[in-house]
Amino acid sequence: MINSRKVPIDITPDKFRKIGHELVDRVAELLGKMNEIPLTNNLTPGQIRELLGADRPLPQKGKDPEGILSEATNLLMKYSLYNGHPGFWGYVTSSAAPLGMLGDLLAAAVNPNVGGWQLSPMASEIESQTVRWIAKFLDYPTDCGGLMVSGGNMANFIGFLAARATVAGQEIRTGGMQTLAARPMRIYASVETHTWIQKAADLFGLGTNSIRWIGTDKKQRLNMRELEKTIHEDIQNGERPMIVVGTAGTVSTGAIDPLDDMADFCRKRGIWFHVDGAYGGFAAVSSKVDRAIKGLSKADSVAVDPHKWLYAPLEVGCALVRDVEKIRDAFSYHPPYYHFGEEAINYFDFGLQNSRGFRALKVWLILQQVGREGYVEMIEEDIRLGEEMFKAVEKEPLLEALTYGLSIATFRYIPEDLKSRTDDGKIADYLNTLNEEILVRLKRGGEIFLSNAILGGQFVLRGCIVNFRTSQAHVEAMPGIVVKCGKTVDAELRKETALSS
Ligand SMILES: Cc1ncc(COP(=O)(O)O)c(C=O)c1O
Asked: How far is the centre of ligand 1, averaged over its atoms, from the C-alpha of 411 (Å)?
């Protein structure tokens, strides 16, 4: 092929091969020592900016790509936080599958625009197959509508918008929210629901006051009676239930709402039932998880997050809508400048994006590498380790074990002399401050990474295992690390805080 145009952005195949191989070697090296390197280093934003040279102006003239890529590799490999480290148990963030990394490289190399079928024939079909495989994995109808999005929030938004268009009818797409004034729509979700629900209510015009927050039981699961009663009252008052949201694995404690009962109730009442399975949805493959999770397969829409429990590298979420027409009804427009035909899925019809990258590839690759059985094994091992973490905490006298659900354990550090006085308001405040500071120090320490939850007003530490590098030994070492840190922080804080005995 003739390419006579000299442009500063192209790279010769030989050069590409050379610098590409060097990069792959560096990545392989990193993966080989993930168990040994510090999880992160204790640098401030100012120090990181200095190392980056954040004040450097944009170069007027371009530079050799080899040096730039090598500099970026050095910076990122030395000064990152590694969620692939075996001691990373923060938030719901998984270690990344190596094959997925190569998948992202291949996707960027072919660069299909998976918005339209004609622009991405093989990629679009791979995405459709991935959606069908994920649906099958979850025991969800494989003829559902579905697509890859950037993550759990976006996947939940897809379900939310499909519900909105279905319940409000097409007038909401033309007349907007004004059409709702006479009969406002309501959203039902437990108080433990992730913040995506507020963003959705806010961004998509209903407003956060439209959310009916339903209480939970002792295990943080939605209270079914309260849900039924609230919906009944709203209908009596002339309001319209738009969506009931159940969570398969709450972000704080891994609670599974009574999804089966919720699905049956919603079906009887003709109310849209959505399941947020961003964290725990894939655990439905395990027969060891609370059977309530099976209700996910009866939902009108489901959000799952391959970049969590399928261990795909960021970013990739997946939305499934039982009736494919409902997803089209929510998003489809046919402008005169698009002539893509109807014979295949054009993904711009299915969601918020127009041009779309090929996120599905990494998921498609790792689903085949691991297989269903491999995932059952890995997810069950993470769950077992979550329980082991909880048990290890129970054995440690200076830690109070609080909850265990799916692969999340919550607990807090309580100094020996304060154990009998936790009901005293001043002591309760001190314990919150103490545990908050312990979390900060642990994060800086680079040995393990925990996050937190607020349980009954208490600041508690939280370990969530969606990490295929974590082993029994890592989990058993955790309480000792927390206690050591807790003793140091407590001694320091006591000097500043007068606690009367
Ligand atoms: C239950 C739940 N829903 C939604 C989300 C949001 O997912 P993402 O961060 O991929 O947007 C999370 C994230 O942790 C989650 O745990």
From this structure: 21
247 lines ligand 1 (CB under 6 A): yes
Does 280 lie in the same domain as 230?
yes
Task: Give me the CATH number covering residue 178.
Answer: 3.40.640.10
Give the position, in ligand 1's atom list, of the atom nearest the Cα of 153: 11
Ligand 1 and 338: CB distance under 6 A: no
* Domain of residue 470, CATH code: 3.90.1150.170
Instruction: Give residue 298's pLDDT band: very low, low, confident or very high (50, 70, 90).
Output: very high
What residue's CA is closest to ligand 1, atom 16? Answer: 251
Q: Which of 88, 305, 308 to mutate to test the pocket of ligand 1 (most atoms within 8 A of CB)?
A: 305
Q: Tell me how far apart the alpha carbons of residues 403 and 462 are, in angstroms, rounded to a whole number.
A: 9
Grouping H, G, I as helix, E, B as strand and the rest as coil, residue 148 is strand
Q: Measured at the alpha carbon of residue 161, what is the angle toward residues 155 and 163, in degrees to the nearest 5? A: 110
Q: How far apart are CA 169 and CA 161, in angstroms?
A: 11
- Distance of alpha carbon 137 from alpha carbon 291, whole angstroms: 16
Report pLDDT digits (tens) over 35-92: 999 999 889 999 999 999 999 999 999 999 999 999 999 999 999 999 999 999 999 9
Count Cβ atoms below 10 Å from residue 76 Cβ, excluding itself: 11
Q: Which of 6-15, 325-334, 491-500 has the lowest mean pLDDT?
A: 491-500
Q: In three state form, how does the secondary structure of 118-135 look?
A: HHCHHHHHHHHHHHHHHH
**Does 160 reside within a domain?**
yes
CA atoms within 13 A on the CB side of 208: 7
User: Is 290 in the same domain as 413?
Assistant: no
One domain for residues 45 and 161: no
In the chain, the number of structural domains is 3
Nearest CA to ligand 1 atom 9: 152
Nearest-CA residue for atom 4 of ligand 1 = 152
Nearest ligand 1 atom to alpha carbon 250: 1
Task: Give residue 314 CA to ligand 1 midpoint distance, Å.
Answer: 12
* pLDDT score recorded for residue 338: 64
For 165, the enclosing helix (H) or strand (E) is helix 152-168
Q: What are phi and psi of 212, to 5 degrees?
A: -95, 110
Does 388 sit in the ligand 1 pocket, CB within 6 Å?
no
Task: Fill in the DSSP letter of residue 300.
Answer: S
- In which domain, by residue range, is 256 found? 112-358
The CA angle 29-49-89, to the nearest 5 degrees, is 50
pLDDT at 333: 86
In the chain, the N- to C-terminal Cα span, in Å, equals 84
- 8 within domain boundaries: no
